[in-house]
Write a structure and sequence with these properties.
- By secondary structure, this protein is α+β, with helices and mostly antiparallel strands.
- Helix content is 31%, strand content 16%.
- It is built from 14 helices and 22 strands.
- The protein has helices spanning 12-21, 39-42, 57-67, 74-93, 126-139, 199-207, 236-240, 266-280, 296-300, 302-310, 367-382, 407-414, 421-431, 438-452, and strands spanning 5-8, 27-30, 47-48, 100-101, 104-105, 107-108, 118-119, 144-147, 154-158, 161-166, 170-172, 175-178, 211-212, 217-224, 244-246, 285-288, 320-329, 332-334, 346-348, 353-354, 476-478, 485-486.
- It has a 5-stranded parallel beta sheet with strand order 8-2-1-12-19, covered by helices on one side.
- The longest helix has 20 residues, at 74-93.
Length: 487
């Protein structure tokens, strides 16, 4: 069980990297739960790419930079949008079945896009289709092995070099890729699966790697709000097709908050919904598609329609109750454009990584594209690692995991959509004694970096510092036992 390359995570980024790595040696792909349980599987809306007749790469680049609110790494954005079209064509060549109008690919629009450039599959199952395609391709390669229900607890490091990871036993490898996905499950309300507890960020931080922009957490405005039901994502593509947000009085309210109305950037919509709920003393607003032609919602969004129906909501006859939920992490393990972290032998890609491509606020449907493009780049870079396997067989210290505080509630109430210094300081104090738990460590890092960023920008909003400040137009960087720096 000592492969040439170890890939931790079986979502889009991990699978795409594994395909590249198979050319250079044996690859072991491990998943915390089943191979199908990743954020990629839940990604509904689509994948953004400049392929339609009226679009161009330059416009996709501009929209991404605008959404990122001054913090995007321009080189990363250019890499994403320029390599995107070829990456999509490769997926199609491998069997990905994107929706079409006749023989042409069908594109829709989501918030903050200036063109219809969002490809979708089976209506609202785009992530699942891309993951299916990549898994089938990777599984067809003789040097790729999969292992499910294999939780990674620690990276193995000697003299600043990562040579493997601990999965009930030490697994040595020439290079290790963290493709562990997001961290939404450290919040009380999230669209992410339960496995998304930021494990990659926590393990990398403990090992001494740099973590960047972790304070920028995107809250999706429209998660299904039904007592006792998971916060199922109601895709932004619904609003792209004309779905309307309404408050408890039945009024459309988004025009009061932004000129783009229901298609304003996600952070604006999430804060607007929060304000409307506070004003009315309710826990949700409404998303209404009753004005659509009969049958359209079932055809265009079959998964969403069936899920809502399962919880007693027929979208053709009644609006859906929705509220914001933690959705996506713009920050993560700091990497270059080829997935290299600050530790030799350790790479990261996808949502677990931070190239700076999303800046302070991710443009809708750029996440799947990021996983495909930067997963491939990380795989190619890892092939160049020529180190021999590590030789140490010391087991990591056993961490006693006590119950501790309610991390998810602390994160939601103190590090959520609207933050302030008092709440962030309280979160740090409550979590500090429990950093042996990954979710507590990740929430603590978010709180620390959010406290240090004394401004509001993108998805990070401080009620006690509501304006952007030029001195914070930099990326936060934090390392184990170090202070938060802005670079």
């Amino acid at each position: 069980m000592n492969p040439d390359f170890l890939v931790i995570g079986a979502g889009v980024a991990g699978l795409r990297a594994a395909i590249e790595l198979a050319e250079a040696g044996s690859v072991l792909v491990v998943a915390k739960e089943s191979l199908r349980e990743s954020s990629s599987e839940y990604a509904q809306g689509g994948i953004a790419v400049a392929l339609s007749d009226d679009d161009e790469v330059r416009l996709h680049e501009q929209d991404t930079l605008y959404a990122g609110d001054g913090l995007c790494n321009r080189a990363a954005v250019r890499t994403l949008v320029e390599e995107g079209p070829a990456a999509i064509q490769q997926l199609i060549d491998w069997g990905a079945e994107f929706d079409r109008q006749g023989t042409k690919l069908a594109f829709t629009r989501e918030a903050a896009h200036s063109r219809n450039r969002v490809l979708h599959a089976h209506g609202d199952s785009t992530g699942r289709e891309i993951a299916r395609t990549l898994y089938r391709k990777a599984a067809s390669l003789p040097h790729v092995t999969f292992r499910s229900h294999a939780e990674t607890t620690e990276l193995l490091v000697e003299d600043g070099v990562v040579w493997g990871a601990w999965l009930n036993e030490p697994i040595a490898a020439r290079a290790v890729l963290l493709a562990t996905g997001g961290l939404g499950a450290v919040y009380l309300n999230t669209t992410n699966p339960e496995v998304a507890t930021g494990d990659g960020v926590a393990m990398a931080y403990r090992a001494g790697a740099e973590i960047s922009d972790i304070e920028f957490v995107q809250f999706h405005p429209t998660a299904l709000f039904v007592e006792g039901a998971p916060r199922f994502l109601l895709s932004e593509a619904l609003r792209g097709e004309g779905a309307q947000l309404r408050n408890q009085k039945g009024e459309r309210f988004m025009e009061r908050y932004h000129q783009l109305g229901d298609l304003a950037p996600r952070d604006v919509v999430a804060r607007a919904i929060t304000a409307e709920m506070k004003q009315s003393g309710t826990r949700h607003v409404w998303l209404d598609v009753r004005h659509w032609k009969r049958g359209f919602v079932q055809t265009r969004f079959p998964r969403i329609y069936e899920t809502c129906l399962r919880y007693g909501i027929d979208l053709e006859k009644q609006p859906a109750p929705v509220a914001p939920a933690a959705h996506y992490a713009m920050g993560g393990v700091r990497t270059d454009l080829d997935g290299r972290t600050s530790l030799k032998g350790l790479y990261a890609a996808g949502e677990a990584a931070c190239t700076g491509v999303h800046g302070a606020n991710r443009l809708a449907s750029n996440s799947l594209l990021e996983g495909v493009v930067f997963g491939a780049r990380a795989g190619r870079a890892m092939r160049e690692e020529r180190r021999k396997h590590g030789t140490s067989r010391r087991s990591p210290a056993i961490r006693h995991i006590e119950c501790g505080p309610d991390v998810r509630r602390i994160a939601w109430e103190k590090c959520g959509i609207v933050r302030d210094a008092a709440g962030l300081k309280e979160a740090c104090e409550l979590l500090e004694g429990h950093l042996n738990r990954n979710e507590a460590l990740v929430a603590w890092l978010i709180a620390r970096c959010a406290l240090a960023r004394e401004e509001s920008r993108g998805a990070h909003f401080r009620s006690d510092a509501p304006e952007k400040r030029a001195e914070f137009e930099k990326h936060s960087v934090v390392k184990n036992e170090g202070d938060v720096q802005f670079q």
